[in-house]
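Hi X.,

You mentioned you wanted examples for the new student's onboarding notes, showing what a folding record looks like when two proteins sit in one file. Here is a clean example. The first protein comes first, with its sequence line followed by its structure tokens.
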Amino acid sequence: MKKSKASIANILSFEPNESELRTQLGHKNMDWEWFVKASSQLGVMTTAYCRLEQKGLLDLVSEDLNAYLSGITKINRNRNQTLLNQVKELSALFNAHGINHVFTKGCALLASGYFKDFGERLIGDIDLLVEPTNLYKAEQLLLNLEYVSAKPTLFGKHKRHRHLPRLVHPDMLGAVEIHSKLLRKNIPKVLNSEEILNDRIIINQIYVPNADANLDILILNDMVNDFGYLLKSTNFKSCYDSLVLEQQINPSKDNHTTSKYHRVFYTLRDSYFEPLAEGSKNINSSVVKNFYKHLNKNGIVRRIYTGLVKVNIGLITCLEGVKLFVKNKRFRADVWNHKSEVIKLFRGEK
């Protein structure tokens, strides 16, 4: 098997490629140490292990490695079950106090039962969207239960963010992020928070977005919030999630042909994965597709391009900071009181 992202993608794929994979994985030169490292870096190690099991290929994995990967997947499976229990408690709490809410991203996919194995997906925080009018009420409910709010950054303290600072409980596994909006910039024609709340469904006592909205959220979170659209980078976790969701729905052609973010996401994904749904096929030209493919497979070009984009993002962030400094007296005072931290930030120090 070649040491490439495409090799990991073939394992994650829902294409009927078991015979081909058996030949590749069973080759004497198969480097399983590389497989563990590469899949871990892409955030899909437990996903890849579960897919190998679902494809009946675990007999090709050594006993020691199988035990190692099985152990990690079991830990993740138990962790996800614990997170889901916490989500149910939070959902009951908000329902009891009349707070209109919906859980999103990883926990929503987990609660919706989209994955064949609870151990497949690595979950970070518990994300939920609430009506802006109930934002601080929801936060206070958790503070009353001994959740502790993280200290906001100097910049974030004076600039309204899409979610409140993370809330952590000493006896709970998941940190909670309460969102008033889902994206760092408003794109109402593509993702409307009010519509997501209105169209929510309930599964296993938990409010989640419908499958179409889940797909839009994961794509736009990757493309907008994580700068995937600018970086032109392929997020394997998001790609796999989209493939899982495509087994539940047939994406709307209109949405994907009008949103530039969807088009870029699918173009990047198509470099490694075959689409399952007709509506998810992108319409970008072959020139654009080849450029993205080259960008993601050439290490030197990738590093140069990423560096330039990050400089651009940094300049935009600095410009926003300057505007805030000019307009906001309290921000100017905070900058002066924390000038040593600001100097370190400009120097790139932690």
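Then the second protein repeats the pattern, sequence line and then tokens:
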Amino acid sequence: MPPGRLRRVGERLSDYVPTPLGVLWTRLVQLAVVLAAGLVVVTAWEQDETVRGLVATVGITPGLLGRTVITVGLFFGASIASSVFAEAVHGYSRGAAEITDHQEEIVIRVGNVAILVLAAASALTLWGQDLSGLLIGAGFLGIVVGMAARQTLGSMIAGFVLMFSRPFTIGDWVEIADDEGIVTNITIMNTRLKNFDGETIVIPNDAVTGAAITNRSERGHLRIRLDINVDYETDPDRAEEVALEAMDGVAAIADSPPPQVVPKRFGDSAVVLELRFWIDNPTPPGRWRAISAVVEAVKDAFDREDIKIPFPQRELSNRPAGQRPVGAADAPGEVEPRPED
């Protein structure tokens, strides 16, 4: 067959099978053509007896050859089944928003392992191997491996737990224990975050499932709290009104729910007001942009209305000479002087 026609046949096959298998089909067709050409050459040169003698010397029997061909076919079929299974999972997940990339990856890997184990068991049975002894040995090996790799197996099991519980997905802004960042990858063994300094944080999945997880992206909006101090001589109601008007003009914060200003506590030098506002589609840069915009807007508004943001202050008073502090005589270890002293 001319090379161009063979290539077109491979391309035609690629239209009906997954892309990696199209290449594999092409290679198999090329191998079949080479074998057929070799057979034609052997027949044309009348070397049949030479080939039979070589086969007898090597010890290749028709039964051995048949089992070898079937074994190769089993693993070839397992490869095809794995690719078809992966394509089917990809196709289903594209139309199902509830399936995450992490779940898709785990399903594909588990399916591929199951197909490979089935093919290997079938091949061993074909070659007359007793699988009962192999299964017993695999059981003991599993116990030994489980004892030696408890942490690794724990991470794998935690990976499956994360797949079904779905506390976060790739791209979410999360805080896991003391680590905070954007989720960049989730595997069976670990979870990767990119923090705000550009560093990659790798957390084992068993540590993830055992830690407190804060997902700031799941709800689609985030509330931010910011404290601001006003002087004790300022009317708190007037300060609240000015702060609310200033926040209403900030484009970086959400209109709903509306911003709030709440008196929080009496500070050492000022009345503390808490500014509460929301942002949509929360991201770390979006949070800092909103905070910066609110600080600038409220500061400008307070300056215009002559509302003072006080510095820390301490009030001092003079004590008349000879006057003792209240309760000083009761201090431990202090003794009142006697007249004769």
